[in-house]
Write a structure and sequence with these properties.
Layout: H1 3-15, H2 28-46, E1 55-59, H3 60-69, E2 79-88, E3 91-99, H4 101-108, E4 122-134, E5 137-147, E6 150-151, H5 154-165, E7 180-181, E8 188-192, E9 195-199
Antiparallel strand pairs: 1-9, 2-3, 3-4, 4-5, 5-6, 5-7, 8-9
Length: about 200
């Protein structure tokens, strides 16, 4: 799998949102259906942009099934159990389990007082905000965040995101509120209640 394909799948999975369902509603078949849609979106992205608009709806069950059965190999080390909720009107909420041990060690060794230096273990991290997309660009407006139910400020969430999203090409990681290009010739992602629609 190419670096672009992996990055594309992770990006789409993280920014499309779906309701948190109980495990009984999720299935391998729904995960496979979502994977087929991702492949179709990627293939359309490799072709010249067509004048006709195509719309690919993604259901809550498909996405959460994909997270359960297929996402783990594509997630950064230390991130697991993603669960995402579509609220509607662009608002999304998500929770992941994060292993903070490495982050805590890095900050403890810096020698300065830093709250991240005292964190550790596997904890749930939740965020909510508005996903705005238009004309092939996207931006996430963070509204709230917490670690194990305790509200945390935006700079702390930025520190975690930077740590887990850095790559050799981007050693500082991803900026939480920075605009980003949508991959695969995606024009926008419509976030309605319980469904996301990829527009190409």
């Amino acid at each position: 799998m190419s670096r672009f394909s992996t990055a594309f799948r992770v990006l789409i999975a993280l920014f499309l949102a779906a309701a948190v369902l109980d495990a009984a509603a999720m299935s391998q078949q729904q995960a496979d259906a979502f994977a087929r849609k991702l492949d179709l979106i990627a293939k359309r992205g490799e072709a010249p942009r067509a004048s006709a608009v195509t719309r690919t709806p993604v259901t809550e069950t498909e996405l959460n099934s994909w997270f359960m059965y297929r996402a783990q190999p594509l997630l950064p080390s230390g991130i697991s159990d993603p669960k995402l909720t579509i609220v509607g009107n662009g608002k999304v909420m998500g929770t992941v389990t994060v292993d903070l041990e490495q982050v805590a060690k890095k900050h403890a060794s810096s020698g300065s007082f830093d709250p991240l230096g005292y964190l550790g273990g596997r904890v749930p991290v939740s965020v909510s905000g508005i996903l705005k997309t238009k004309d092939g660009r996207g931006q996430f407006d963070l509204q709230a965040a917490d670690i194990s139910g305790v509200p945390v400020p935006k700079p702390l969430m930025q520190e975690l995101l930077s740590y887990y999203s850095r790559t050799p090409e981007h050693p500082d990681g991803v900026r939480l509120d920075a605009p980003f290009p949508l991959p695969a010739n995606i024009r926008e992602i419509e976030v309605a209640q319980g469904e996301a629609v990829v527009v190409q």
